[in-house]
Amino acid sequence: MASSWVSPTTRTDLIEDLVSGVDRYNPSNVGILEDYLYHQIRSQEYDCLANLAILKLYQFNPDLYNPDVVINILIKALTASPLPDFNLCISLLDERPINATLDEPDPLPSLLPTLKHLSDLLYRCRFPAFWETYQSDALENLRDNYTVECVGFEDSVREVAIRAVTATFTRISADRLASYLDLNGADLAAYVDKKGWKMEGSVVTIPPNPDNQIEATVVQENIKLAQLTKLISHGANM
Amino acid sequence: MATPRARWAAEADVDEDLQEMEYVQNGQVYDDTLFQQPIDEATLIAMQQAMAQQAAFAQIPDVVKGFIVHFHQAVLDNNLAEITVAYESGWNKYTEKFYSRTEWPEAEIIAPLVNDDPIFLILYRELYYRHVYSRLQPNVDDRFHSYENSCELFNYLLNSEGPVQLELPEQWLWDIIDEFIYQFQVFCTWRSKVKSKTEDELSMLADGGPVWSSYSVLNVLYSLIQKSKINEYIAAHQAGKTAEEIAEIVGEYGSRPIYRHLGYFSIIGLLRVHVLLGDFTLALKVMENVELNQKSPYTRVTACTVATYYYVGFCYIMLRRYPDAIRTFVSILNWIMRMRQYHTRSYQYDQISKTGDRMYALFAICNALSPSRLDDNIANISKERYGEQFAKMVRGQEDAIPAFKELFLYACPKFINANSPPYDDPAALNALLVPGSPDPSSPDSADSSDPAHRHLSLLLSDVVAQSSVPTLRSFLKLYTSLGAKKLANFLDADEEDMVQQLMVMKQASRSVTHVTGGKGLLDGETASTSDLNFVIDENMVHIAESTMGRRYAGWFIKNTERTQKLLDDLKNQPLPAAPKAGVAVPVAPVVAEPARTGGPKVAWGGVKVAA
After folding, report:
1. Which UniProt keywords apply (chain B) (predicted)?
2. Gap from A222 CA to chain B (nearest CA, Å)
3. φ, ψ for residue B162, nearest 5 deg
4. Is B63 exposed, middle or buried (0-12, 13-18, 19+ CB in 10 A)?
């Protein structure tokens, strides 16, 4: 994982102490981490390890469990694809008995399959299908109650598509790109422009990058000095 | 040895002793007590217990008594060599001989042999319960008492005034931590099965409190790490500080081997506990300071090294970092092979080879998801063992899923749920017991309560996402460029669908991988992991393939070294005294050599196939 994933520059010292120290197990710190999550949601920041620390506290202290927080964590993790963040969160969601202490019914059990499905669509690069599902009536609850609060959620999804396209294409038809980004006409042109990509007619050119530059190579073996130390030292002792 | 043996000889004559005691008791009864006051019940019970203990004591074979006394003395003297002998061979020898199907005598029974030494009795119980867990079926009392005994041991180590003066062999210290976590895992698994619990068990679980709770287990491990300052020790060691400077840094606890070793093993223990609880990033994060290489002094404890690599490799799988997982498994599997000649004698050999086998299975999974040519030798062994499943996995059709499932469930760690079912809440517990309880995910509910299936389903969804990659790959290999439409026709697929699959393929051929000099095990950079690369230019797919040049160096180096060794051996042979002996002696090593050349031959064959 890139170092920005292990410790994002936006992480404060206080959070760093919680993520890296034993204080992460202290249930009374859950509020600090939850506030930090809502800060991430408002300011388009993302800190996977800090969010996993919340889930860890929930795992050990079922009475802290707050389904809205879990859903928001999963929404943030969704757009990290193809990194495994979403799966890492799911791994920490232990089976829990139906919680009778909550004031209202737990929204997580009904939303979890939806979120898993969305994550799957993104990981499988099925971007047009993602948009169709996301905008369907069935997901109104998710949009109106959760993703609407998550600033820049749709743009983060677009970034997932952009990452896949950048690696795979040198040129892509504008129609195809439009279907991946769920943008049309002037919006698409503006988006492409903002990325610094060029649109000529109906084709968008992706700037060269290490992933879309291909070259056939023959890998030759390299012999390191360390491999030869035995031979050389033996020669010297003859 | 002579003095103690004389003592048990005196005690050995059981029946006589016992009869004498009864006689005395009888005498007492008749002489005074009967007429003064009846014996109260408590005294009677105490007496009966004492008698039972006497009887049990009497049944212990003399050699075992001798062994315990000797063992105790070795611990008192901090005599590591003697402790090691008693621990690694004596204990196992007498287990085989006398206790293969029953418990060792309880600590209270043997207490007179060791002058009621509380520390030795704790250590003795550690072995006693470990034996119960490994050879017999622990009952609910064993489960609770083994926890209490572990707590007593750790309390003694952590909360005595200043560092304790005890010394134990590294191997035993590793086993203590390893067993502690193993019993925790076994307890959690047992606890999560709500059905078929007796009334007794239910009531004990309801009042269990912190017994084997995740918090208490983590607490022990973190306390040992902090007390020993092992992370500071490792950092200072890596920075090349002098012994004096290190001693200064780690303080009075960390300078003592017992704390330093326990601290290190606790880091590995944490790695394992976090994996069992499904926290794969935290597992790698606690390993931040540990350098994963086989030059570490802790490779002396083979089981520890093998466990470390197994859990690290598994974390990498769950982080979708298959190349890192492969690298991890390859390095330890080669090491196990090299070490085999030494550790076949070890009593842990079975455990190590089982873990090795599971790593070959995990290697097969990784190699199917991210084909690698890192080590043909290991790949061939893995194919020999799991060839059938491997073939199914790489074909990527629908029978790939059962093959992945089979290998994953065989090779994955024994995952646990962090929390207990609600034993303290009879109503909630009954709700769990009622079949067909209102569970929204009813078809999978049996599976979903098992954490292993939760992790499995995550891997499988990734597998399904990648399922078209092998087919695409086989087509792309045939071309340097072809139209997307044509490729879609070959595959009998919709063009747009296929383009999306190509993006998945591209994604699957990139992975975060560890870079040399990177900090910690989590750190890494995205790198290409495939020899087949392609790019789409609007509707045209361009393909480029990287090939490996033929590799000679390893073969030549190995054989030159071998020849040198042969030459040295020959030169070191004493000159023949008589012609007869002279012929026989030098021949032996020459004949012995080819037996060991089996490995390289296979490797060479593998390379040939590649070229």
Report:
1. Cytoplasm, Initiation factor, Protein biosynthesis
2. 9
3. 75, 175
4. middle
DSSP B168-208: --HHHHHHHHHHHHHHHHHHHHHHH--SS--HHHHHHHHT-
Q: Is there a single domain that holds both residue A182 and residue A160?
A: no
Domain that holds residue A61: 3-168
Instruction: Nearest by CB to B546, from A52, A60, A216: name it.
Output: A216
B501 and B457 in a common domain? no
Same-domain pairing of B383 and B394: yes
Which residues fall within 8 angstroms of residue B297, CB to CB, at 6 or more apart?
none
**B175 to chain A, closest Cα gap in Å:** 25
* Beta carbon pairs, A and B, within 8 Å: 181
Which of B547, B573, B590 terminates a domain? The answer is B547
The reply to whether residue B417 touches residue A94, judged by beta carbons under 8 angstroms, is yes
Which domain covers residue B377, as residue numbers? 292-430+447-466
Number of domains composing chain A: 2
> Sorting pLDDT into bands at 50, 70 and 90, what band is A86?
very high
Measured in angstroms, the CA of B319 and the nearest CA of chain A are apart by 6
**A25, containing H or E segment:** none
Cβ neighbours of A227 in B, within 8 Å:
553-554, 557
**How many structural domains is chain B composed of?**
4
Give pLDDT, residue B503: 94
Among B215, B512, B547, the residue with its CB nearest the CB of A218 is B547
Chain A contact set for B504 (CB, 8 A): 123-125
Q: Give the burial class of B477: count Cβ atoms within 10 A of its Cβ; 0-12 exposed, 13-18 middle, 19 or more buried.
A: exposed
pLDDT for residue B355: 92
Q: With bands split at pLDDT 50, 70 and 90, how would you rate the model's confidence at B344?
A: low
Q: Quick one: A182 and A150 in the same domain? A: no
Same domain, B394 and B322: yes
- Chain A partners of B501 at a C-beta cutoff of 8 Å? 125
The set of long-range contacts for B497-500, using a CB threshold of 8 Å and a minimum separation of 24, is B498/B472, B499/A176, B499/B536, B500/A124, B500/A125, B500/A126, B500/A127
Residues in chain B: 611
CA distance B313 to B361: 12
In three-state form (DSSP H/G/I as H, E/B as E, the rest C), the secondary structure along B285-337 is HHCCCCCCCCCCHHHHCHHHHHHHHHHHHHHHHHCCCHHHHHHHHHHHHHHHH
Q: What is the pLDDT of residues B54-94, one digit of tens each?
A: 888 888 888 888 898 889 999 888 888 889 888 888 888 88
Q: What is the pLDDT of residues B116-127, one digit of tens each?
A: 888 989 999 999
Say yes or no: B320 and B456 in one domain: yes
Same domain, A154 and A206: no
pLDDT digits (tens, 9 = 90+) for B17-66: 433 343 334 434 444 444 455 567 778 788 888 888 788 888 888 888 88
